[in-house]
Specification:
301 residues; alpha/beta; D-Maltodextrin-Binding Protein, domain 2; two-stranded antiparallel ribbon; 11 strands; LysR_subst-bd; DNA binding
């Protein structure tokens, strides 16, 4: 049994297919499939039920628990070795950009899991420091191409040559307004319900906004975007007048803004795009690649 087999097992289990795991690991699908078959031969039982995609069997789930424990221990050893040698090295800084409002609300105000992992990585890696910036998705991707930043968090799976994206989980966008707004009595919202409704103009015409505009066009109307200053007082006044705004949702926001309602889109109209960690495929700092792996593994725990 070899370590790369355990890494491939973990990747397939979380990605749901050998092809997606191979893409994430920068190896061929054949290499992943061969490693899984070899591991099954060594253990003497099947790890995946291939009649249902690549779903773990009961034995596979048990092996995965132990495999990921081993991989975490290896990460610990790697970080320890880095720490012991840090005294002889200069401090190395990583520049990380987060998508501007509203996603930065989840990061900076609510302690998103990815931010906690960055803090943990810095704490456990002497000689490492982090500078953070807020940008639009497009600005983040441009900055990566120009080598102005090392990592960036974006909303959606953009296609840029030389830029690698690691999905970290879906981000649900909801329709937000005041409880006093007529929409406040609804359980959910359909795209068609928003025809003629004033919608606060998005800060960044990103993939979600473009997908939303396309969905509105499919229902035969243009969304009624309005410019609204980016502060709570102005947004509340806008919503009091019948307006709404669209924002990535975190359950903790309901406690922070009890006067507001956070309405999900109807399942048939829901638009969910993943939060992705973006970095350069080439010329990336070794420390940046270690942080990518640390975040990815940490969010799988």
């Amino acid at each position: 049994m070899e370590l790369h087999q355990l890494r491939y097992l973990s990747a397939v289990a979380h990605c749901g297919s050998a092809a997606k795991a191979a893409e994430e690991l920068y190896v061929s699908k054949q290499a992943v499939s061969k490693a899984i078959r070899s591991l099954e031969h060594e253990t003497g039982f099947e790890l995946f039920d291939r009649d249902d995609g690549m779903r773990l069997t009961e034995n596979g789930r048990e092996i995965l628990v132990h495999a990921e424990a081993v991989l975490r221990e290896l990460d610990e050893i790697d970080l320890y070795v880095q720490a012991q040698g840090a005294g002889a090295r200069q401090t190395e800084s990583l520049a990380i950009a987060f998508k501007s409002f509203p996603l930065d609300y989840l990061f900076f105000n609510k302690g998103h899991e990815a931010v906690a992992l960055i803090d943990e990585f810095v704490y456990r890696t002497p000689g490492c420091s982090v500078s953070t910036f807020k940008m639009s998705d497009t600005a983040i991707l441009n900055a990566l191409e120009e080598e102005a930043i090392d990592l960036g968090f974006v909303h959606g799976t953009y296609k840029r040559p030389g830029i690698r994206l690691v999905p970290l989980g879906p981000v649900e966008t909801r329709v937000i307004t005041l409880r006093s707004n007529p929409f406040g009595r609804r359980a959910s919202v359909r795209i068609a319900d928003l025809e003629g409704v004033p919608i606060r103009s998005p800060f960044d015409f990103d993939l979600f906004t473009n997908a939303f505009i396309t969905a509105c066009h499919e229902h035969g109307f243009d969304p009624s975007f309005r410019e609204v200053p980016l502060n709570d007082e102005a947004i509340d006044a806008f919503c009091s007048g019948g307006g709404v705004h669209l924002q990535p949702f975190d359950p903790r926001m309901e406690k922070a803004y009890p006067q507001s309602v956070f309405l999900p889109f109807h399942p048939s109209d829901r638009i969910e795009l993943p939060l992705c960690l973006a970095y350069r495929e080439t010329l990336a700092k070794p420390l940046a690649l270690k942080l990518v792996g640390f975040i990815r593994n940490g969010m799988r725990r």
